[in-house]
Amino acid sequence: MSIAKNIKRFQSELPENVTLVAVSKTKPIDDLMEAYDAGQRIFGENKIQEMTEKWNAMPKDIQWHMIGHVQRNKVKYMAEFVNLVHGVDSFKLLKEIDKQAKKHSRVIDCLLQIKIAEEESKFGLSKADASDILTSDSFQNLKHIRVTGLMGMATFTDDMAQVEREFKSLQTYFNTLKTNHPHLEILSMGMSGDYKLAIDCGSTMVRIGSTIFGARNYS
Ligand SMILES: *Cc1c(COP(=O)(O)O)cnc(C)c1O
């Protein structure tokens, strides 16, 4: 199937309350433009430099989402244009995004990345640390960021029962947090291999790469 057909299929298949982020990392601009011409306006990248190059070259009504791990010293390169940072995993990073957003008189939306994978290696905050951030005074003082939701990545495994456990634990935490923090509206979870399960577990934003653009070549 072509990229355009894949985009159209997702547009008609996804529930209305679920936002599609087209994950275009490593893909050439021609591929992104094919998705753009099919109506896609939200793209996700995991490297700030690559995202900035694409932002420079492409139409300005695109919303750029940073979905990868963010190094604090690179925030300045995306502060002018990034629309949503999915992978915020420390208060220090939030502070840096706030500082750089201020320089551009912007407010940048962020998601707190929560560690849900049972495996060890993944980035993310513990639920306790995320709750501490959201209730701290120093967080209330950041006027140039808005935390609009949570993001999580399940373990990379064929064991769908495990993936479901991990998604459900994030859903439960999200729903609990929302009672005290009603401005949280986005639950970013689900990729090509597990987005259907993620939606069943309450995801409102799926990040889909290879099912739209084909397998990535990292060489
Ligand atoms: C690459 C990536 C995706 C997309 O993965 P696919 O399996 O190609 O859909 C989603 N989320 C994050 C954080 C990624 O790095």
From TrEMBL:
SUPFAM superfamilies from the UniProt entry: PLP-binding barrel (SSF51419)
Keyword 4Fe-4S: no
Annotated Alanine racemase N-terminal domain residues: 3-216
Pfam families: Ala_racemase_N
Keywords, alphabetical: Pyridoxal phosphate
Residues with N6-(pyridoxal phosphate)lysine modification: K25
Highest taxon listed in the record's lineage: Bacteria
Function summary: Pyridoxal 5'-phosphate (PLP)-binding protein, which is involved in PLP homeostasis.
Family: Belongs to the pyridoxal phosphate-binding protein YggS/PROSC family.
Protein name as it appears in the record: Pyridoxal phosphate homeostasis protein
